[in-house]
Amino acid sequence: MTGPLVNAAAIVVCALAGCFLVRGIPPRFEEIIKKAIGLAVIYIGIKGAMDNRRVLLLIMSLVAGAVAGELVNIDALMNRFGAWAERKLYSGRENSVSGSFSRGFVSASILFCSGSMAIVGSMQSGLQGNHELLFAKSILDGSIALVFGASMGIGVAFSALPVLVYQGAIALLANAASGLLSDDIIREMSAAGSLLVAAIGFNFLAVKEIKVANLIPAIFIPWLVIGLFG
Fold this sequence. Notes:
The structure is a single chain. The chain is mainly α. It has one domain. The chain contains 10 helices and no strands. Helix 5 (97-114) runs antiparallel to helix 7 (132-152) and helix 9 (183-205) packs antiparallel against helix 10 (221-229). The two termini are 31 Å apart.
């Protein structure tokens, strides 16, 4: 739980700093910070993918995972859920204090929980005790929470709760299932997940938008293939 706890703490501290210490961050600073974080995320993703020892399996996992994710259209489902949550929680209350709180809480919660970085990082924490990816995500989320806190208020700080529950649950489930996973499977799953993390970095750089959520099934293909064929 170290990674999820650090991530949640970073969101709370930075959101509160945004609420009470920072006001009106110029857009140009917000933009350059996002680009810097994007470069760091690409490096982390590629570095993690370099541990791969089965290149053909990695390629096959990405292709098969992309097809499965696109058929289900995970990205659209997540966007639909986000829009539904926003409508339910603060529709028609934009001018009230409670509406402002809900807007910050919902927007930040969806952003911090919806990325594949949360899934891959939590799995690595649970399976390997490797919290590096969630520590990097903490820096990313903290930077965003600082900006959101300054513009949307204290509701952003409370988004740390669903982040902790969501990522903690994934980490605990992964740890419980570790007996079903060999070192070889864990390594190849982590390599596939790391490439998805690199894709998130490219999205931050606005090079070309990648529907990373639709690639999430690729993480589980190595488990299936190695489990069946060794």
